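Q: what sequence does this backbone want?
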């Protein structure tokens, strides 16, 4: 874990994924404030919920402030803790609750997986930045145990991503770039890849490889599928899917970084990176 300084203020950089995730949260916050509506990361809220509009701006402000806080030494631990708590509450109130009303709907499980990826990323950052007081009071959520919990969230999230490729097979095939051959094969292959990666992360077999390749897969979806669509003139739905894919890529990147130092084909758990050059 390295410390860089700028203008006398310490900037905490744990990994490339950490920086991308922090910047992503900042952008989501700015986007939410400008648009005045929930960004894809913060969806699932009933339309008749009291003070719904206020919640829109609360989500935007939390995204913005936590994203900025993740980049600064003195605030990184607080920002990671706050973001983790907020994602956990969101997962419970506005994601998992939907399962009781539509347990067999793919969209319900996709929504849970979406928030679970972001929760996993926030948990990894919380473990990385946890101070002595956090480790004393919240020992169950820090250290190797905390990283293992984060990996479970991530592994479980990947499985509905893969299943959705088959429940929405026609739509998935249509998204495969035209210059690629065998559209049906690619749609099925990427779906299977998500499921296999999720299982591998959960059981801890080749977990680093699985986490890295799944993050790469999400990134390729963003670059090869959604960016060309957005540049060609997208609908509100397609723009939302692009933002969601971008955020998921950032979250997956953080989780993949938590396996640094492990052999690619190893059997085991993610590790806490060694802290270097701390002041």
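A:
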């Amino acid at each position: 874990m390295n410390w860089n300084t700028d203008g006398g203020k310490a900037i905490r950089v744990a990994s490339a994924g950490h920086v991308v995730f922090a910047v992503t949260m900042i952008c989501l916050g700015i986007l939410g404030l400008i648009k005045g509506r929930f960004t894809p990361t913060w969806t699932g809220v009933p339309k008749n919920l009291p003070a719904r509009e206020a919640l829109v701006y609360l989500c935007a402000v939390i995204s913005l402030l936590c994203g900025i806080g993740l980049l600064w030494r003195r605030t990184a631990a607080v920002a990671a803790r706050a973001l983790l708590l907020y994602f956990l509450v969101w997962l419970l109130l506005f994601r998992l609750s939907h399962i009781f009303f539509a347990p067999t709907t793919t969209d319900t499980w996709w929504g849970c997986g979406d928030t679970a990826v972001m929760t996993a990323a926030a948990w990894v950052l919380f473990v990385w930045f946890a101070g002595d007081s956090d480790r004393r009071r919240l020992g169950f959520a820090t250290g190797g145990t905390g990283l293992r919990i984060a990996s479970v969230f991530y592994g479980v999230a990947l499985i509905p991503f893969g299943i959705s490729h088959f429940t929405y097979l026609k739509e998935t095939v249509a998204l495969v770039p035209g210059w690629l051959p065998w559209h049906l094969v690619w749609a099925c292959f990427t779906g299977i890849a998500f499921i296999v990666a999720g299982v591998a992360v959960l059981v801890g077999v080749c977990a680093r490889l699985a986490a890295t390749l799944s993050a790469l897969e999400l990134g390729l979806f963003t670059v090869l599928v959604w960016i060309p669509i957005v540049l060609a003139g997208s609908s509100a739905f397609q723009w939302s899917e692009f933002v969601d894919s971008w955020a998921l890529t950032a979250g997956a990147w953080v989780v993949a970084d938590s396996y640094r130092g492990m052999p690619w084909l190893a059997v085991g758990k993610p590790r806490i990176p060694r802290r270097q050059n701390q002041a």
